[in-house]
């Protein structure tokens, strides 16, 4: 679905008053609980279930999405919950958001696949910081698509990184049914002598 489709979807759900996912992705909560809060970037944040949860836990969060309706809902929730999340509307496919290199303690990309965003997200993670991704993968005889990786494909992007969590199978998320690949990986610290 393109940005316009997402925007319409968020707007129409808003109109009929349907609720959106509020609980954070379990993997985000599990991972962040063991970290000291720092700077977090949530790419393709949607209505901000993860961004808001992180902000509530003391993280300094920037949340990026292409759908302005999603960011509006996020902003309203943030006000209600009295937390601060910096929101950025940007079409990631069009490269409208530049991930600052070696800056973020934690980057999350949940239920959004853009293959050419993986490298910038890796570069944006500070040495020793974590990149967490949840993406859909193919099932059975399906061929990979723009929005689905092949099983085993996600880990190959993280050669040389410390893999803290690696899972493929049914998602542990009530909003999704199709198989996922999940990864939490730590960017290697700069080698001594290159600092
Ligand atoms: C399945 S939702 C996931 C939202 C959130 N990460 C979560 O797990 O609740 C995918 C999100 O990607 C956003 N998105 C899709 N294409 C995008 C693009 N080209 N640039 C920025 N955001 C995009 C949509 O607006 C939508 O909010």
Q: Which helices and strands appear, and what pairs or packs with what?
A:
Blueprint: H1 3-15, H2 26-33, E1 39-43, H3 49-56, E2 60-65, H4 68-81, E3 85-89, E4 104-110, H5 115-124, E5 125-136, H6 153-156, E6 162-169, E7 180-186
The site of S-adenosylmethionine (SAM) has 18 residues, from helix 1.
Describe the structure.
The model has no long low-confidence stretch (mean pLDDT 93). This protein is globular. It is an alpha/beta fold and 195 residues long. It has a 7-stranded mixed beta sheet with strand order 3-2-1-4-5-7-6. It has helices at 3-15, 26-33, 49-56, 68-81, 115-124, 153-156, and strands at residues 39-43, 60-65, 85-89, 104-110, 125-136, 162-169, 180-186. Helix 3 (49-56) links the parallel strand 1 and strand 2. It has a single domain (3-8, 20-186), classed as 3-Layer(aba) Sandwich (Rossmann fold), CATH 3.40.50. Residues 3, 6, 21, 25, 44-46, 49, 65-67, 70, 91-93, 110-112 line the site of S-adenosylmethionine.
Question: Which terms would index this structure?
Answer:
single chain; 195 residues; alpha/beta; Rossmann fold; 7 strands; binds S-adenosylmethionine
Quick gist of this model?
The protein has 195 residues and is α/β, with parallel strands linked by helices.
Number of domains: 1
Described by the principal axes of the CA atoms, the overall outline is globular
Structural class: alpha/beta
User: How far apart are the first and last residues' alpha carbons, in Å?
Assistant: 42 Å
Q: Bound small molecules, which ones?
A: S-adenosylmethionine
What is the number of beta strands?
Answer: 7
Helix content: 25-40%
Q: What is the H/E order? A: HHEHEHEEHEHEE
Contiguous helical run count: 6
Indicate the mean pLDDT: 93
